[in-house]
Each structure stands twice: as structure tokens, then as C-alpha cells.
Amino acid sequence: MVQLKEFRIVMPMSLEEYQVSQMYMVMKMQQQSSNGAEGVEVLENRPFQDDEFGKGQYTSKVYRLQSKAPAWLTSIAPTDALVMQEEAWNAYPRCKTVYCTSCIDIFLLLFTNRVVYFSVIKCPYFTKFSLTIETVHRADNGTSENVHGLNEEQLAARQVETIDIASAETDYWSYAIGSSNFDFSKFKSAKTGRGPLLDGWQENCSPVMTAYKLVTIDAPYWGFGYRLEQALLAGERALFIESHRNCFGWIDEWFGMTMQRIRELEQQGDCLLNEKISKPILLTDAADCEQSFSHNSERQVQQVIHT
């Protein structure tokens, strides 16, 4: 049975601020999650322009996720199968991300949550399996209906959940992905004065925006298909919560940054990621990395994305 669920994540920031917060969050979470054996390897990161998206940023990455796998999956999948390849065309506010993995991709975006507007996952081992994520961002507090333009049949099947980033989670997937220690009932941004987030904060928040994420999962396999679909939904939910909690929790680190500065830090971070993963093969060419570090030392970058 196809699972269709819409997650609505309300955020105390503007649409423009959200773009910066997402990029900063991705960069920092990737650094935190990468080491010599696992993590994110950046193959390519460059500007692009085409007729479909216009101008934007293209990235190609590899995710090594073995330790994130639950026991029941590792029992049926070889270690090398738990590697995911990502191609992303980020032309904010529109973006397309495509994932390909040699096994069931339960760990979609465990290290990152790109500004995803359309993503598709298909699995060569399970050719009938598919997962799509479509996101629409609106400058509202989660009250817009049918932003994805669903038909009557889809609307009848769709489940809707509004996520409160002020609520900390303690389930298995929150543990697997990692859980921040922010207490938003006491949190107050030094730079913006935003916070704390008390009960009902979404009703009177300004500025405010919402990420409407529609997750569609189809795993038509007898015996484990439903279990897989539910695990994917739970994993996605935990990831959405954690990444968006970090977006707000780190607001004093990214607030006021320009897109140019974020891009510079992103390039430096890509170089550091490949050093951590012991595979420094960024295709933007080695000269780019060397020039980048001549302006900002590794120590400075680490201070910006300190753990």
C-alpha cells in the first residue's frame, strides 16, 4: 500500500533566512557526521544553468551510512550496499535531488537535508520500490491546504502532521540520527531576540515560514514492505525534526551571513569532508581547494562549524 504523508514544519524565520539556515545546517551536520570510515564525500560542487531550473548550484555526493543501519536491514544487505549516491540541482526556491543506492534506502538524508523540492529514490535491488519527497515553502504558519495540488484520491489517502521543532524526540530514529540538546522553552537568540518557543508559539510568530514536505513511499513486497514503509516514514520524520531544530538552534552562528559567504564556507567544508573521509577527490579541482584555504585557514573553518 502506498504511504502518502505530508509533514508541515513551521519555522520562526523568513523564507530568505531559511535558505541561509539550511545551507549552514547542511554544512555543519555533514562535518559532525563524517569520519575516516563513514560520512559524506563530495564529488562535485559547481554552479549550473539550464532551461529547466535556470541558475543554481549542482552537487554530487556519496553517503556511507553503514553504522546507521538497524540490525534487521544489515542482516539482509551487504555492507557495501549501504552507500548512497546523490545528485542535487539547487536553484532555490526550486530544487531537484536524485538518489541511487544499491540497497533499500532507509537512511535517506541522514546526514543532510537539502532544500529539497523534488527527490526520487529508486533501488536497483528492489526495482518496484520508490520514495519521493516534494517540498513547498510558504511564508505562513502551516495553515495552507493542498500546496502540492493533490487530486481527490490522493487527498483522501494523505496523512498530515504538523511538526513542532520545540518538542524533543526520544525514539529509535532520533537516537540513530542524533538529537540536539536545545531547550527552546528557554532559548533566546542573542542576535535576533527570537525565542523562547513556548506552547502555541506558531500562532503569533513573526517572521514565520513553513516547509510542506510530502513523502510518498511505495514498497510493494510481501512480508516486509509495510515494515519498510513505516521505518522510512519514521526516519524521515526524525530527520526533519532534528535538521530544523538545528536550523533555529544555530541561528546566532549563521544569521547575517551573505550567500557569498555561505558558498565560500561550503567550498571549504567540502574540502574538509573529503579529507575526513580519506578520499579527497573533489572535482572542482585541487587548485580551488588550495586557493580557498589561502583565504581562510582550516582552523577558522572549524571554528565556524565547531561541534
Automatic annotation (TrEMBL):
<dbReference type="GO" id="GO:0008526">
    <property type="term" value="F:phosphatidylinositol transfer activity"/>
</dbReference>
<dbReference type="InterPro" id="IPR001666">
    <property type="entry name" value="PI_transfer"/>
</dbReference>
<dbReference type="GO" id="GO:0005737">
    <property type="term" value="C:cytoplasm"/>
</dbReference>
<feature type="domain" description="Phosphatidylinositol transfer protein N-terminal">
    <location>
        <begin position="3"/>
        <end position="104"/>
    </location>
</feature>
<dbReference type="InterPro" id="IPR023393">
    <property type="entry name" value="START-like_dom_sf"/>
</dbReference>
<protein>
    <recommendedName>
        <fullName>Phosphatidylinositol transfer protein N-terminal domain-containing protein</fullName>
    </recommendedName>
</protein>
<dbReference type="InterPro" id="IPR055261">
    <property type="entry name" value="PI_transfer_N"/>
</dbReference>
<dbReference type="Pfam" id="PF02121">
    <property type="entry name" value="IP_trans"/>
</dbReference>
<feature type="domain" description="Phosphatidylinositol transfer protein N-terminal">
    <location>
        <begin position="119"/>
        <end position="268"/>
    </location>
</feature>
<dbReference type="GO" id="GO:0071944">
    <property type="term" value="C:cell periphery"/>
</dbReference>
